[in-house]
Design goal:
With 598 residues, the chain is an alpha/beta fold. It has twelve helices and 35 strands. β25 and β26 form a beta hairpin.
């Protein structure tokens, strides 16, 4: 039952109780009839006045329109009749504007508002829900300049390749540069005609880090800088088994990268005569393959498996394991036919040949530095009808391809000597090649991760999901805050957090400890202004349209007249319930009978 329905019943009960009490006292003290009737009549009147003071009667609301100033707004020259000028906290100081903490408060203070006019950059996220039932016009201010769009991954596997994408507004003659935490330049580019850009790099070792994006002018001086925090996740979930018919520098470089990236690695290299080096030989059977996410081997190791081993590998791939076959030597006709049956067509070529990879995969210095090694490939021409291309050269010819088999994937790799890049001092370019291959082919592993917003700002509300009841938020200064799950979020199990300082936070929940970056409140001003602008434009486009004859909902009248009336009636009732006696001197004495009052 709502308070508006429950209040009359409660007041009626109190009035009845007061009337019964007055009757009992009137009989006991032998009140005159006029006095008894007056006191009894005042009790329901007092209850009625109290009810009207608590819930005043509804009255028609005066129609009005709200003019709301947001960040970057310019005050209007003049207001139309019925318009009220309000300013959100993000707006500057404007003469004649009433400050409101948010739009919901403004609507509560002005229940007769029938229309909303928003000026400036637009509404922040906290105010979007308050506009759903109100017709709205949006008059955007000056468009933001510089970085207006920016996107990068919040977390990714260590060593994996990632891209930073975005858009520059008003960007003639500007370039963009991506630097790592040590200040080394990783990639540079110029925006296209629409101002869009994309920069590629590779994550380093596991841990939290921050790259830096620079907007450079024609004089190579930075016009704008932006930190890009992210977390490189350890590669332990991927279990890699390397098999080779003989030791070789390609396998050695690959082994070094896998260990640096934190992969669970097992290496096995044959020396002949049944002797192998590395981590020791282990049987190729269903049990060992079930504990492997990706089996990477060359054609000699593939032959050495024999029919039984190859059958076990085929069964494991069908169950979800990944397989990558590196071709470093010639194949027999039977082997080519077997690969054709698996979806790979290999046409013989003539001798190893140099290969040029796309700029996005090549070392950044390869354009200027002629000493960057040129890689080579096995000459066979590879196609995988119905499959996918894992790696292609600059001309688009496949260097590696894959086919799905059951729940797993099988791939063939023709690149021969990617180790040259690692030896020449370009380990990130080498890592990028193999990280993409392993991420595509390896058995997917379930990891326990929380659903955290990829981007958050100090002083703003954020929703953290996938939490347990013991969830805690640890701030950079060591402050620990308990996160209370909102029951309304159901299975998503979300809680609200208001980080007050920028930097790396930690979210701890049910044994999971995950990093969460929070940017400074003033970070990315152009991006946030553009996001508010676009979100408000969408709200205005889908806002309800005003209809003829629509009237604002009624509002409650003022309370103070009813409180004054109740106070006057209460004073009269108090006076009537006292014995009034005129003394010889003409004074009035109030109070119950006593020795001095007879």
């Amino acid at each position: 039952m709502t308070p508006a329905l429950a209040l009359p019943w409660l007041l009626a009960a109190l009035a009845a109780l007061a009337m019964w009490r007055a009757l009992v006292r009137a009989r006991a003290e032998a009140w005159p009839r006029w006095r008894t009737a007056s006191v009894l009549a005042l009790q329901p009147l007092l209850a009625l006045l109290l009810g009207l003071a608590l819930l005043p009667p509804l009255r028609p609301a005066a129609p009005e329109s709200l003019v709301l100033l947001t960040g970057g707004a310019v005050a209007p020259q003049a207001l139309a009749p019925g318009e009220r000028l309000l300013a959100l906290p993000e707006a500057g100081d404007f003469e004649g504007a009433t400050r409101v903490p948010d739009l919901a408060t403004a609507l509560r203070r002005h229940p007769g508002a029938s229309r909303l006019r928003v000026l400036g950059d637009g509404l922040p996220a906290r105010d979007e829900a308050a506009t759903r039932a109100l017709p709205m016009d949006f008059e955007p201010g000056t468009p933001p300049t510089g970085l207006v769009e920016l996107d990068w991954p919040a977390r990714l596997p260590a060593g994996a390749r990632f891209e930073v994408r975005g858009r520059l507004a008003d960007a003639p003659g500007l370039r963009l540069e991506l630097r790592d935490a040590a200040g080394r330049s990783l990639a540079t580019t110029a925006p296209d005609a629409q101002g869009r850009f994309s920069l590629a790099a590779s994550a380093g070792d596991p841990g939290t880090m921050a790259f830096e994006l620079r907007v450079l002018g024609a004089d190579e001086e930075p016009r704008q800088t932006q930190a890009l925090p992210f977390e490189a996740l350890p590669g332990a979930p991927h279990r890699l088994w390397l098999m080779s018919g003989a030791p070789n520098p390609e396998l050695r470089a690959l082994r070094r990268w896998a260990l640096d990236a934190g992969l669970d690695l097992h290496t096995q290299m044959a020396l002949g005569g049944g002797v192998s080096i590395g981590d020791g030989a282990r049987p190729v059977n269903a049990a060992t393959l079930a504990e492997t996410d990706l089996l990477l081997l060359d054609e000699r190791a593939w032959r050495a498996l024999g029919p039984g081993g190859r059958a076990a590998v085929d069964a494991a791939v069908a169950e979800g394991m990944g397989l990558l076959l590196r071709l470093t030597g010639p194949l027999s006709a039977a082997e080519r036919e077997a690969l054709r049956a698996q979806g790979f067509v290999l046409e013989p070529g003539e001798g190893p040949r140099a290969v040029a990879l796309p700029p996005a995969l090549s070392p950044e210095a390869s354009v200027q530095d002629p000493l960057v090694p040129v890689l080579s490939r096995w000459p066979d021409r590879l196609t995988a009808p119905g499959g996918g291309v894992l790696l292609a050269d600059a001309a688009g010819e496949p260097l590696a391809a894959w086919q799905a088999q059951g729940a797993g994937r099988r791939g063939v790799w023709l690149l021969s000597d990617s180790f040259r890049w690692a030896q020449a001092g370009y380990p990130q370019a080498h890592a990028r090649l193999w990280a993409d291959a392993i991420a595509t082919l390896a058995r997917p592993r379930e990891t326990t991760t929380l659903s955290l917003p990829p981007r958050a700002f100090a002083g703003e509300r954020a929703a953290l999901c996938g939490l347990a009841h013991d969830a805690r938020l640890l701030s950079p200064d060591g402050t620990e805050t308990r996160l209370r799950i909102d029951p309304a979020t159901g299975a998503a199990r979300c809680a609200a957090a208001w980080p007050t300082q920028p930097g790396w936070h930690r979210v701890r929940s049910a044994g999971t400890d995950q990093a969460w970056p929070v940017l400074a409140a003033e970070a990315m001003p152009g991006v946030r202004a553009q996001e508010r602008r676009e979100a408000t434009q969408e709200l205005a486009a889908f806002a309800p349209t005003p209809r003829e004859g629509d009237t604002p909902p009624p509002e409650r009248g003022p309370r103070w007249p009813w409180w004054l009336a109740w106070l006057a009636a209460a004073a009269l009732a108090w006076a009537l319930e006292r014995r009034i006696q005129e003394t010889g001197s003409g004074s009035l004495i109030y109070g119950p009978p006593g020795p001095g009052n007879k």
